Every structure is written in C-alpha cells, then in structure tokens.
Amino acid sequence: MNFRCISIMVASLALSASVLAESLAIVVHPANATDLTTEDVSRLYLGRARTFPNGESAVPINLAEGMLARESFDQRALSRSSAQLKAYWSKLVFTGKGTPPQEVDSHEEVLKLVATNPSIIGYVPASAADERVRIAIQLD
C-alpha cells in the first residue's frame, strides 16, 4: 500500500469518527409540544409504541441503512448495532408482529417530512436541524 492510499484511509476514518461523535437531534413538528425521553424514542423506533406520550399518533422515520447518522442513532438511542436491529425487525416482520420505520435517503428528506406532518418523528445531525422542526431531544 502506498502512502497516498494510507492517507486517504486515515482521513476517511477520521471523518467517520467525527460524524459518529456529532450530536444527533431527535426532531418533531413545531406544533408537537409533547415531552420525550430517550426511552420514549426507543419504544417508538422498536415498534413497542405507536403514540407519543400525550396519546397522539407517532410515525417514526429512519435514515437509510449505511448512513453514519443512522448507525450513531442505533447505538445512542436504541443501544443496538445496525445488524442487531436488522435481525430484530426481520423476526418481527416474519412473524407478522411489526413493520420497521419507513426509511428515507437524506437528512433533508427527514426535515421536510417532519415539518409537514405533526405525527412524524425523525433524527438528523444536530447541525442539520433548522427552524422547520423542533428538537425534542439532543443526543451528545
């Protein structure tokens, strides 16, 4: 391996580590004033709850598999690896006991969906959150 190749690999690992270390924002519609805990978020994303604590309908949105923010969310909010979650949902789908959250391909798509529907909950890197959404929880 040459020096340039090693330099690129080190830079890539450093970038990945910085994204994984970045704060994540759990976002909801600005009109959604419900207080959330990380346990509430976990229950929603694991299919164990279908409503926010205030009783309103909740629709969790996931980032696509392989995105660094998703891997970080899986570890921080759900305390599981992406592989563990894939196996978890495979079992629930196979037995007819659940459907995983819908996946979207970008942070911008999460923000657009949350901004237009008070029932949707999502997550983005904290630096991507803007005035269209309310940060319900910030995971550092």
Automatic annotation (TrEMBL):
Protein name as it appears in the record: Phosphate ABC transporter substrate-binding protein
Cleaved signal peptide residues: 1-21
Q: Which UniProt keywords apply?
A: Signal
Reply yes or no: does the keyword Signal apply. yes
Q: Which Gene3D superfamilies match?
A: Periplasmic binding protein-like II
Q: Which domain of life is it from?
A: Bacteria
